[in-house]
Amino acid sequence: MTTIVTDNCKGCRFTDCVTVCPVACFHADEAMLYIDNTVCIQCSACIPICPVHAIYADDDIPEDQRHWIEINAERSQALPVVSDKQDPLPGAEERKTALGY
Amino acid sequence: MDALGSEANPLRAAVVGSGPSGFYAAEAMLKSGLAVRVDMIERLPAPYGLVRYGVAPDHPKLKEPILVYSQIARLPHFGLLGNVAVGRDVSVEELRAHYHAVVFACGAETDRRLGIPGEDLPGSHTATEFVAWYNGHPDYRDRSFDLSQEVAVIVGQGNVAADVARILAKCVDELRTTDIARHALEALSASRVRDIHVIGRRGPAQAKFTNKELKELGELVNCDAVVDPRDLELNPASRAEIDAKANFVSAKNVEILRQFASQPASGKARRLFFHFLKSPRALAGAGRLEEVVLARNRLAGEPFKQVADETDRAEVLRSGLLFRSIGYSGVPIPGVPFDARRGVFPTHDGRIVDGAGAAIGGLYAAGWIKRGPTGIIGTNRADAVSTVKALLADVPKLAPEAKRGADGLRALLSARGVRTVSADDWLKIDALEVARGQPDGKPREKFTRVAEMLQCLDTPTAALAARKGIG
């Protein structure tokens, strides 16, 4: 069971997901968020709230995004937890529009 | 006078309710940087609300927020006053006398009604009763459900309906090593339920299941999911809904249902039928539920605003066991305004407001009692945090007189003969539950009566040890 953050978060980082995470399993760097699956309870609260559908679980992870499984695992261990809403990255709204959301 | 929220005059806050919203509200206050004392007041001796008594026993991972809550309970300046019912043991007025702020996070404790003839026939139940019963909630310990019926009907298509369907569909061996209450496991082991019908008022594109919960219903060991492909023919407005990119959850639900429809039945012992565009019009039977009359509905309206209109067409489903799961409603507490239509405490930005819409100083609400029964566990974190934000912004305006908080309240309750349960007391009950579960390979065997829980605290340990496993 795996839930991960993928491409679409990069350059957006809206952080709506962290506000609904019941167990504070999101970690962040300058570019995006990552999920620590050793803490995540697979509740999927974050999936529908992401404005750019960057979060996927299990079978729903698109083939071309599966490399993010390993990246989420690695980066989440190295970065601090983010559990409060932060401002989206500059240009996030434009990127959201460009992604079709 | 020292400023409120300083070490000399800490903000004293009471949180009513110990479920997710209550714990997230407590955490947000305790980590606010102000000097705060938070007391959580819980009606039962056991904390954690719907995580303990709502989340299904076969979803142990979803119960893991309890680990987070138990850490919050260990933060400095957090106190638990369990076994205390606001409105029974202590009034809201008394709470306001002891605390600068009161946050109601008491959830939505009762079900909405269908409002149709026959709703109260024996055999017709609320999903809440069943869920609380299999989860060992003391208020529902003595409920009984006629599981000798072969056909069960669940009205509603959200995650609670999915939980009820799954518990009915699973065989007891799949539940044996969960924390399901022993009385429920015993009753379910004699279940003759064979067909389960899940009824939705609107179409497949409007079903409220989360993808994961729906998918799980098609992967049951002992039960085939049955969907009529004709039910998946969408009207133009519903097609527009699932084509909207942001509505990917509904699109996925429809895709999952299509997959169910294309799966050939594999002859499993039980079958789970999904019905769409049907509403119960009446429940009928001679002295008990025998028939569910289902009206056929038609969707009308713009995409995302479609409503189900009943047509003249109807069908009859023979069933002696029905659970309604069409949403919950909060329960009023004397001394707090109540919006009976929505079943919530009326609020503005988390501040409880009176009939004229003006904030009542010092009273707040978070979670289901504030916004109604929507979302899942984590949704209540964002909700509680936003309420606490409003509360903290009000601190300079709150009456700054020092309040007595827990010391005063404990004295009051003790004089009334109320045996309060502290966080340390709960840890004792918790450890005994875990120990009781061990012989059966269960994570815990819950105490299902308040008296049993209190006995854990007031009986010498040796006597308890001798009785371990009994009860």
Concise synopsis of the structure shown:
The complex is a heterodimer of chains A (101) and B (471). With 101 residues, chain A is of the alpha+beta class.
Descriptive account of the structure:
The complex is a heterodimer of chains A (101) and B (471). Chain A is an alpha+beta fold. Chain A has helices spanning 16-20, 46-49, 68-78, 92-99; strands spanning 3-5, 26-28, 33-35, 55-57. In chain A, strands 1-4 form a two-stranded antiparallel ribbon. A two-stranded antiparallel ribbon of chain A has the order 2-3. The longest helix of chain A has 11 residues, at 68-78. Chain A is globular, with a radius of gyration of 12 Å. Chain A starts with a strand and ends with a helix. Chain B has two domains: 11-109 and 330-421, 3-Layer(aba) Sandwich (Rossmann fold); 110-328, FAD/NAD(P)-binding domain (3-Layer(bba) Sandwich), CATH 3.50.50.60. Chain B has 17 helices and 18 strands. Chain B has a seven-stranded mixed beta sheet with strand order 3-2-1-4-18-17-16, with helices on both faces. In chain B, strand 16 and strand 17 (351-353) form a beta hairpin. Chain B is globular. The mean pLDDT of chain B is 95. Chain A binds chain B through residues 1, 19-24, 41-48, 51, 53, 57, 60, 84-85, 100-101, and chain B through 20, 61-62, 64-65, 67-68, 210-212, 245-246, 248-249, 252, 375-379, 381-382, 385.
